[in-house]
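Good morning C.,

I know you're traveling, so I'll keep this short. The sequence:
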Amino acid sequence: MEDWPETIFALLRKYDVKQVALVPDAGHSRLIRMCLADNAMRVVTLTTEEEGIGMMLGAWLGGQRSVLLMQSSGVGNCINMLSLATLHRTPMPMLVTMRGDYGEFNPAQVPMGQATQPVLEAMGTLVNRADKTEDVGAAVEATLKFAYNTYRPTATLIGQRIIGAKTFGKD
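The tokens, ready to paste straight into the viewer:
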């Protein structure tokens, strides 16, 4: 079992992230459990991903750093709300587990999975991508640094080569 969730958790602590917004996701499950166990972090379970954009704006206005954890299928829900980051110069780091790329079994995941990076970039988000476990730490740290130093939306896409392609039944 790879230790990339532990690496991300250590970076969230290093960068003093106090609020973690998320829609439950199997790809982030180990990281979510670590955040829930940390009394210094407030974990907010959302009903839809775009609520996380509003939460990150509120956290920043209240003097706290936050991060949004989601799956690539939820990125489409956030697009319009990302304009808030530009208007208000708010750091909005997002950590996105990918679907619809390497080894995907579900055809419904492919369109948003393939559009995730170009759509985020079209909204002014700096995107880093990790497709090897050894790249996760550097990509996430770059995402956090860029967000907090330049006050803008950033994202790390964590590829299916890292989280594994889901299957329902025999391959």
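Safe travels,
E.
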